[in-house]
Amino acid sequence: EKISAGLKKTRDSLMGRLEDLAAGFTKVDEDFFDELEETLIMGDVGANVTMRIMDELRDRVRHAGITEPTEVIGQLREIITGLMGEESPLDLSTKPSVVLVIGVNGVGKTTTIGKMAAYLRGEGKQVLLAAADTFRAAAAEQLAVWADRAGAELIRHEEGSDPASVVFDAIHAGKSRGADVIICDTAGRLHNKKNLMDELSKIARVISRELPDAAVEVLLVLDATTGQNAISQARSFQEAAGITGIVLTKLDGTAKGGAVIGIREELGVPVKFIGVGEGIDDLRPFVPAEFAAALFE
Ligand code: GDP
Questions:
Q1: Record-annotated residues binding GTP (predicted)?
Q2: What is the per-residue pLDDT across 43-56, written as a single tens digit (0 to 9) for each?
Q3: Residue 225 has what DSSP assignment?
Q4: Are 95 and 175 contacting, i.e. CB atoms less than 8 angstroms apart?
Q5: What is the pLDDT of residues 192-225, one digit of tens each?
Q6: What is d(CA 197, CA 125) in angstroms, rounded to the nearest whole number?
Q7: Would you call 192 helix, strand, or coil by DSSP?
Q8: Residue 250 assigned as binding residue
Q9: Contact, 259 vs 45, CB < 8 A?
Q10: Annotated binding residue at 104?
Q11: pTM over 0.80
């Protein structure tokens, strides 16, 4: 399976080490707990979340009187699975519904939109893409290629035009053409944060004015290869935009996938999709139990 193959590096770096650790200890003592903690931190799980996991693990071990290191790893698996919560699918309950996709350049935003369009097309939905990253001409070009591949429609304006007006047009086109989902690309330049955030709130205002009752998802795309830095990046976006979910890209080829474990806990929003490759089929709904199984297999 693609998810399992994609997670190989993370599995080796995190679970591989935990198993080696369990094999190297004969009893469950403070040294063992210290090494476990260290391994989670090295596996990009994040300091806060690691603390939470370790507290709960110690509690469980104490209460159940566990003395076998391998049994402790079993408990750890349960705790990690629980932390990631339930699957959280996109809310597409209105026609049209809107998915606003945000994130800094290079994280895989455009690719994710293309893959998501294909995924939704596969579910029989009419998809319309709005090229509201008008800052880079190449962005609209790239989106046009993906729209073609995915069988989605595209609304684009000239380079440098007002992103909110692209979204406005996309909403009206979407309504008249009977689109089920309108997915909006946005600019991701971070060097001018105030500008970017103003632009996002202007787009959000257009959406709520033109489609006051629509289901709206605001998805932040994060690059898994940046590990814990992705979490800090998410915090600065969260201050400005009401994020409803995370898409974590490039989980294939990184050993830092442990960052997924703490996202819901740290950011208070679920991971909705993961990217496990560059191809059109390489976006998967995030199913925590499936992810945990691939991680611990
Ligand atoms: P944007 O600037 O955020 O729109 O980023 P792009 O969509 O242009 O993607 C940047 C690069 O990341 C491209 O080379 C993509 O093929 C690659 N990419 C995107 N998602 C994934 C993924 O899940 N896995 C891998 N391996 N590469 C990805």
A1: 103-110, 185-189, 249-252
A2: 899 999 999 999 99
A3: G
A4: no
A5: 778 888 889 899 999 999 999 999 999 999 999 9
A6: 30
A7: coil
A8: yes
A9: yes
A10: yes
A11: yes
